[in-house]
Amino acid sequence: MASSIRVRAVENNGVTSLKALVRHPMDSGFVKDSAGNVIPAHFIKVLTISHNGKNVFVANWGPAVSKDPFLECRFKGAKKGDELTISWIDNEGASDSTTATIA
Amino acid sequence: MNKPLLAIGISLALSVPLAAQGGPKEDFQEVYAKAQSTHQDAGNFQWTITSDRLKAAKSAADSGDHEKAMAMAKEALKLAEESVAQRKKQKEAWRQVAIGN
Amino acid sequence: MLKAKVILVALGAALAVPQALAGASPEEDRKESVEYFKQMFPDVPFEEFVNGQYALNEDRRKQWESMQDFPPYEFAVAEGQELFETPFANGKTYASCFENGGIGIRQNYPYFDTEKNEVITLELAINRCREANGEEPLKWKKGAIASISAYMASTSQGKPINIKVPDDPEALAAYQDGKKFYYSRRGQLNFSCASCHVQNPGKWIRADFLSPALGQPANFPVHRAKWGELGTLHRRFAGCNNNVRAEPLPAQSEEYRNLEYFLTYMSNGLPVVGPATRP
C-alpha cells in the first residue's frame, strides 16, 4: 500500500526546507455522521522527523489538526544527499513512516 | 330606508364570511395548501426559505401551536408568491443582462 | 439565385446585425464575453483566467502557490486512478467506454449527444459507463465520482477546452437554456450567476473573493477548503443556488447539464487545470 506521507526536502545554504502532506482522517471525535453517531476520534498523536538518528522535528498533534495535514518546516545541520525519516503514530496505535533524500 | 337597520344589516352581512370560515384548523389548511401549490408553481425558481416556512408551519400545526402554524403558513404563501413573480419576470428579464444577445 | 445569395451575404457582413434581430450564435456570445472580461481585467493574460481569484488577488495567489507543492487533492487523484484502472465485475474497465481509453479527453466534455438529444457531462458518462457494465452508479457530487473525474481531468492538463455546439436545433436549444439559467435571477436574494461572476468579479462578497465566469469550469472538480475534499461542478452549482436561497436542482439534472454546457463553451480555448484548490 502506498505511503501516507508525501515529502520533499531541499537544502540551501545549510538550511533544509521540508514540506510534507500526510494522509490521515484526523477525526476529532466531536463530529457526528449523517445517522447521528459520533465518529470516533482518530488522529495522529506524534509526528517525528529524524536525521542521522537524531530527532530534528517533533510535532505533538491532536484533534485540533485537520484532515490530511500539510507540514512545512526548516532545520539546520543536514546537507544534500542525506536521508531523513518521517514517521507518525496515531491514537489507535497505527503508524507509518517514510524516508526521503534531501535534494 | 331605516338607517340604523341598514347599518346593522350591512355589518351582519359583512360578518357572515368571517363566521363561515370555521375554526383556526380549517383556515390553516387552506392557507397551507395554497402556499404549497404556489410553491410548486414556482418550478425551478423555488426558494429554500419557502420550504423552511412550510416545514415550520407543519411542525407547529402538528404540535398544536395553531397561531404559529398560521403565521408560518402565511409567510410561506407570501414568499411562494414572490418566487412565482420572480419566475415570471425572469422569463424575459435575463435578456437585458445577457452578454451577446 | 447564387448572385442574390452572394449579395445578401455581403450585405449581412457589411451591416452590424441589430440586437433585436440577432439570435447571436454561441461563438459570437463567447467572443463578446471574452472581450468583456479582457476589458474588465486588462492586466490578466488570457490563460490566467482559469485561476479565478488567484489571477486577481495577490495575497490569495501567494497562499495558493505555496500549496501547489502538495495540493490537497493529490491523494484523491491517486485513488481516482486506481478506481479508473480497476476492472468491473464483468472484466471491462472505464477505458472501454471512452475515446482514447478515457485518457486526455476531459477538454471535450460536456458534449451534446445529437441522438439522445441531451448534454453529456463527464460525470454522467462515468456513471453511464458503470451502468452499462452492470455496476451501481456513484453519487454525483463527491467521493468516488469526483476522484475519477479528477484523475481523468489530470490527464488533460493544459489541453484547451473544446466544447462544440453543433448546428442542430436541439443543441442550440440546450445552449440557450443554459445561457438563460445563467442570467436569470433566482432565490430570495434575487441573484443570478451573472450578478456575481459577470457584474462583480474581483470584489468581495462577505469573505469570498469573486472570480469571473471566464475560465471557471476549467478547474473542476475542485478541492474546496470549505468542503475539505473534492467536489464536482454540480455540487458547486447546488451550493451557489443554496447561497442565494434558491432551491438547488438535482445534480446532473437537465438544467444543470445545460448550464454546464453553456458555461464551459464560454471557456473554450482555455487550458484544463482541474483538479484544483479553492478556498
Automatic annotation (TrEMBL), chain A:
InterPro entries: Ig-like_fold, Ig_E-set, SoxZ, SoxZ_dom. Pfam families: SoxZ. It comes from the Bacteria. Residues 6-100 form the Sulphur oxidation protein SoxZ domain. Gene3D superfamilies: Immunoglobulins (2.60.40.10). This is Sulfur compound chelating protein SoxZ. It comes from Marinobacter pelagius.
UniProtKB/TrEMBL annotation, chain B:
Keywords: Signal. Residues 1-22 form the signal peptide. This is SoxXA-binding protein SoxK.
Automatic annotation (TrEMBL), chain C:
It comes from the Bacteria. It is an enzyme of class 2 (transferase). One of its GO terms (molecular function) is heme binding. Its main location: periplasm. GO terms for cellular component: cytochrome complex; periplasmic space. GO terms for biological process: sulfur oxidation. Heme c 2 binds at residues 193, 196-197, 240. InterPro entries: Cyt_c-like_dom, Cyt_c-like_dom_sf, SoxA. Its cofactor is heme. Residues 79-161, 177-272 form the Cytochrome c domain. Its EC number is 2.8.5.2. It catalyses: S-sulfanyl-L-cysteinyl-[SoxY protein] + thiosulfate + 2 Fe(III)-[cytochrome c] = S-(2-sulfodisulfanyl)-L-cysteinyl-[SoxY protein] + 2 Fe(II)-[cytochrome c] + 2 H(+); L-cysteinyl-[SoxY protein] + thiosulfate + 2 Fe(III)-[cytochrome c] = S-sulfosulfanyl-L-cysteinyl-[SoxY protein] + 2 Fe(II)-[cytochrome c] + 2 H(+). Keywords: Electron transport, Heme, Iron, Metal-binding, Periplasm, Signal, Transferase, Transport. Binds 2 heme groups per subunit. Residues 1-22 form the signal peptide. Heme c 1 binds at residues 97, 129. Substrate binds at residue 236. Pfam families: SoxA-TsdA_cyt-c. Heterodimer of SoxA and SoxX. Belongs to the SoxA family. This is SoxAX cytochrome complex subunit A.
